[in-house]
Amino acid sequence: MERLLRNRWALVLALALVLAALPLVFPSNYYFRVAALVNIFALAAIGLNLLMGYAGQVSLGHAGFMGIGAYAVAIGASRFGLNGAVAMLAGAAIAGLLAFLVGRPILRLKGHYLAVATLGLGLLISMTLTNEAGWTGGPDGMAVPRLELFGLRLRGPDTWYMISAGALVLGVILALNLIESPTGRAMRAIHDSEIAARVVGVDVAAYKLKIFVISAIYASIAGSLMAFLNGHITPDGTAGFLRSVELVTMVVLGGLGSVLGAIVGAAMLVILPQALTIFHEYEHLLLGLIIMASMILLPRGVIPSLLARLRGGGA
Amino acid sequence: MSALLETENLSIAFGGITAVDQVSLAVSPGQIHSVIGPNGAGKTTLFNLISGLYQPSGGRVNLAGEEVTGLPPEQLARRGLSRSFQNLQIFFRMSAVENVMVGCHRHERTGILSHLLALPNVRAENRNSREIAMAQLARVGLADLAEKEAGSLSYGALKRLEIARALATEPRILLLDEPAAGCNAVETEEIDRVIHDVAKAGIAILLVEHDMRLVMRISDEITVLERGRKLVSGKPDAVREDPRVIAAYLGTFGSEEANRA
Questions:
Q1: Is any Cβ of chain B less than 8 angstroms from the Cβ of A2?
Q2: B259 vs A91: which has the higher pLDDT
Q3: Domain ranges, ordered by start, for chain A
Q4: CA distance A234 to B14
Q5: Are B209 and B163 in contact (CB under 8 A)?
Q6: Which residues of A fall within a CB distance of 8 Å from B122?
Q7: What is the ipTM of this complex?
Q8: What backbone phi and psi angles, to 5 degrees, belong to B211?
Q9: Chain A residue with the nearest C-alpha to that of B164
């Protein structure tokens, strides 16, 4: 237990140090931008990993919640004159509420059926954002007013890198806390045997719903941060089906049931496409090959597979 | 002593086949009541009815004087009924002690917001649940394996881990579905000791078991099922010598096992 606790805080500390040190070696704003995107997607992937990797429930529509977070800050600030930070919290509340309402009926489904139902939810959100052009600007998207906090206009990738890094560290701490709590044990138990969890008194339906809501809020906050970083949002770029698939890929690639894995998965899927642009038309081919190779060589995801190897080698 | 758990004419039918047919039985605190019968007699189905996994098509279940027919398992757990499974239902990716800590769930009171923030009361609760879980692991002889991942434990150890997890809920009645199946002689001995120990603590035990020697040695009362119906019920000695039981259950090859028992 003590070793575990030490590891847990060692992970947070190491992450915070790396995130604080990176700006020292970033040569340009472009790097800040890419790194901020890594932080943002890592945050969403951590939330999704709580649902998929720990509680064992799939969601193929999680980008929908990112879309809600993104459009909440855009619409909240431009149409209702809300402060961006308030709009972000409102977005998180809306995403959480929607997850609560929709989660109740659809989380009764299992496996492929749940996958298709969540896929439908994601499509529904993205279609709504596309069709309600009066509010959202339609498929072309809309501009996101700059966030003002304490009289400061927050702009520039370096600023948003620092803010997203802070959000990521906070997200990691909350996730790690949750995993080692009674709720965390209940959700991990549900993953392995719902029946066994029920006969010792775990209300399986209620816990699935709680985790679904929490993961939706993670995605929504990530979506809001992405909107602030980019300054312009579109339905496809925030809530699209491909975004949802990307999130799932990050979680599986980095490692189901590993907080660090979600960060590594997000880093891979954000950085690789950027790095591979030097190969021009072979870019997508290479990305696909790398993902396949990673899954073949590290079948349980990067972090869990490497940890298992370290343990195997050390013992 | 008044019964803690009673079933009255409990029945369930699957597509025209009555798997459990009007079964009535009663278990008192501290009593070990075994349900035996040939394969397919409906023992596990009866357990699934009592523990809320199946909805009965007839009859009722009373727990501590209140009707609990058809309540879901998580609510029964809160009322003091827990069980183990014939085919293991283990949280394989969690450590042994964490498996048992899930059993403490119904006594944990902190909310999800405090869990996210790891408030001091959550840390105290974690410590408390861990202590209880360690005590239950010690009770079934698994204290040494507490930090091992459950997936790496032996079959016999996992059987006892299920019992420890169920005990952590602090049940008033425990349903054990073939706790000794697949266990070697030493492990069966250990499970025998655990069951005795649990009954002595005043917990009612309803047991399904194929190991006749264990059943005859341990039971206060035995109910014999055949094709979903109650055939006989009574003390081990009476049941062992009942000609209907010998004919139906022990039958051809079972009779020699009965003699050995």
A1: no
A2: A91
A3: 2-240
A4: 53
A5: no
A6: 177, 181-182
A7: 0.90
A8: -75, 100
A9: A200
- Which chain B residue shows the shortest CA-CA distance from A172? B116
Bridge partner residues of B67 (DSSP)? B62
Tokens in use for B246?
């010998």
Contact residues, chain A, for B82 at CB < 8 Å: 199-201
Interface touch A186/B106, C-beta < 8 Å: no
- List pLDDT tens digits, range B4-20: 999 999 999 998 889 99
CA angle A249, A188, A69 (to 5 degrees): 50
What residue type is B23 in one-letter code? V
Instruction: Give residue-wise pLDDT tens across range B67-110.
Output: 999 999 999 999 999 999 999 999 999 999 999 999 999 999 99
| Residue B54 three-state SS | coil
Q: Is A192 on the interface with B (CB under 8 A)?
A: yes
- Band (pLDDT 50/70/90 cuts) for residue A217 is very high
Residue A164's nearest CA partner among A13, A19, A18, A261 is: A19
Of B216, B224, B239, B213, residue with least CA distance to B25: B224
Q: Distance from B186 to chain A by nearest Cα, in Å?
A: 26
CA distance A307 to chain B (A): 14
In this prediction, residue B245 carries a pLDDT of: 83
- With 0.95 as the threshold, say if the pTM is over it: no
**How many Cβ atoms sit within 10 Å of the Cβ of residue B47?**
24
Q: Residue A195 is nearest to which of B89, B93, B125, comparing CB atoms?
A: B89
Distance CA B223, CA B26 (A): 10
Contact criterion met (CB < 8 Å) for A199 and B77: yes
Inter-chain residue contact A196 with B117, CB threshold 8 Å: no
- CA–CA–CA angle B250, B256, B261 (5° rounding): 85
Contacts of A189 in chain B (CB under 8 A): 91, 94, 99, 102
Domains of chain B: 1-80+172-261 (3.40.50.300), 84-170 (3.40.50.300)
Tell me the nearest-neighbour CA distance from B111 into chain A, angstroms.
8
The closest of A289, A139, A122, A151 to A216, measured between CA atoms, is A122
Query: How far is A227 from A25, CA to CA, in rounded Å?
Result: 26
Pairing type for strands B81-83 and A232-233 reads unpaired
B117-156 burial, b at 16+ Cβ within 10 Å, e below that, comes to ebbeebbebbeebbebbbebbebbbbeebbeeebeebeeb
The amino acid sitting at A176 is: L
pLDDT in tens, B128-147: 999 999 999 999 999 999 99
